[in-house]
């Protein structure tokens, strides 16, 4: 599927460009042989000066910031370092959870193979995430996640620690979500296997708040991509 980079743009000025990253596309080129490109590669075709200011997991969709010049890159990098950037993610989790500014403060250690993490109170790096329930459904919850630190898989493992793993995240205990579990009357054609409502970890980077070069604070929001939107629509329709 050909992606038109210009269609992804959420915000652009002379210093920064923010896009709505599609799911299943890596932020940076993967170390292994070419596996379908990256957002950075598309960005460089659009403007060769662009540098990614942070990254999102391959499966995660949502707002991703690029800097257009070294000064802008430094400016945003310093805000990330001093935790002055507010990142808000939306996740659909298994189970019913009433989270009201719940903070999970558990250190995270990346496993040797680099594909997963675990909680390690001795060797782990400091990690904190704040969680708020946005909407409760029958057996599922839409959660706002605000990571204070930026560790790998931080939101996923911290939700798992709350016994609220993200839907379709088997790595951290998340189960797939099927329409048949939401809909009381559900008929599946014979000889066909039902597909989950979403084919990836149900996590979307919803907004990014930071200061522009002139000090003006902006909050850039990324609309849900199609798969996440369909999931939430079905939950609103059949899960309440």
From TrEMBL:
Q: Which residues form the Pseudouridine synthase RsuA/RluA-like domain?
A: 15-160
What's the superkingdom here?
Answer: Bacteria
Q: Which GO terms describe its biological process?
A: enzyme-directed rRNA pseudouridine synthesis
Question: What family does the Swiss-Prot or TrEMBL record give for this protein?
Answer: Belongs to the pseudouridine synthase RluA family.
* Name under which the protein is recorded: RNA pseudouridine synthase
User: Which GO molecular function annotations are given, in alphabetical order?
Assistant: catalytic activity, acting on RNA; pseudouridine synthase activity; RNA binding
**Pfam family of the protein (one):** PseudoU_synth_2
Q: Which CDD domains match?
A: PseudoU_synth_RluA_like
